Amino acid sequence: MTARIVHISDTHLGTKFRQGVKHNVWGIEMRSRLLEHDFYERFEELFQLIAKEDPPVDAVIHSGDLYNSPWENNPTHPPAMAEQTVIRVIKEFIEKTNIPVLILEGNHGIWRSLNVSLLDTLEMSVPGLDVATQDDFKRALANEEPLKYSYDNLDVFCFPFVEYNVLESSDLLAEFNDWITTHQRPDNNRPSVAVAHGMDLDRTLFPSMFSMDYDYIALGHDHKQHSYSKKAWYAGCPERWRFDEVKHEKGYLLVEIESGKEPIVVPKTLTFRRLVLNERIKIESDDTVDTVIEKIKALLKKAGVKTEWNSKTAARVRIVFEGESPRFGSLDLGMAMESLRLNLLASDSEYNLVQLVWSIKQSDTEFVSPAYPEIESEYLIEDPEADFRAYLETLEIDEKFDPTELTKIAVRALKIAAGQSDERLTLDTLPEEE
User: If 0-12 CB within 10 Å is exposed, 13-18 middle and 19+ buried, where does residue 9 land?
Assistant: First the structure.
């Protein structure tokens, strides 16, 4: 018995960009801001493409983070436009194709302190839509029953997002692992899929799930589309949620599944009209603020941004400044950049630009405090980032782990341990590449 599915994930509908964004530009006037609307258009494009798959697929599986909010850094309800887009797009898709859709609850789009899910309301609004929420998981665990959906030729076992420390503090880890091995066991005579939202990075991906011999594991949470193992893939985020995702392939996964065999996974890549630049500019010792600004204008011109306004192609740009010059400090550069941004994003600008942000990496102690002073004094670490990178080079690290991300986590953990930060160390609080 075989099955074909489409695996999508992390659509983050309702994402709003506020920093450095051109004022009063809309995707739909008075309904959705321009960059917010990109996510709605991408969601609709996904389902239009899936509807054209020939032969038709047996199911569409979304592995979490349908909406961008609420989450722990933004407790607000998603925009009405986000909910209306989901209802309209999925309802039209199911009515046209008769293909079932299953959506898993991730760490975005969930109120942590309430047993209420936005997906429950969505399920009631769209016939043929199935959802698996954190509350469904709690009920299945308490009642010692599986959390799965069965279709004509496919069983889907659901693992909504759950934090490791929640299970640990509730003394439920052993019970959780027993639930997986006892109640989430696949039937070897039918193709089986597990769908989960989690990563090794924040301990939300549980090893016992991989011992169950599912024919395919549909993963969400990591925005980069890639293989986790021979039978497990991340579908990734179909839109550029962060600037450091600009180099990622974006799209969905077409998966052919046969019981007892390795799945055939075909990435389907989307193309984008909107340019996103995540660039570094080196500041030389003889640079002035004016020469740095000229470097930026030259970069934008070379990238084709110096052209008339077009809302469909207007660029998003992030600049990281590296190095320093004795002729100016970070405050001087910051003020010059604020002025430049006002000009570039003005209504009469000759640049097709919708967002401009930057970060400045300088050792200008007049405006930037010394790096991690408590860490240096307590642990005698002169440069925590460089030292940890050097340490990683002495180890044999699995290729699925990114040394840059590991370094970020280590340095952030040292800051928290040294009392410089009282924030929680989670995947979503990790900064973009700086």
Answer: buried
Q: Which residue has the higher pLDDT, 128 or 385?
A: 128
pLDDT at 370: 34
Closest CA to 250 of 265, 230, 234: 234
Long-range CB contacts (within 8 A, 24+) of 26-34: 27/311, 28/81, 31/81, 32/79, 32/81, 34/311, 34/314, 34/354
**pLDDT for res 219:** 98
Distance CA 195, CA 378 (A): 44
Give the other-Cβ count within 10 Å of 220's Cβ: 30
Q: Kind and range of the H or E element at 354?
A: strand 353-361
Q: How much is the pLDDT for 382?
A: 46
Q: Model-level pTM greater than 0.90?
A: no
pLDDT at 369: 30
Map out the domains of the chain with their CATH numbers: 2-269 (3.60.21.10), 276-361 (no CATH), 373-429 (no CATH)
Beta-carbon neighbour count of residue 279 at 10 Å?
15
**Closest of 252, 246, 218 to residue 45, by C-alpha:** 252
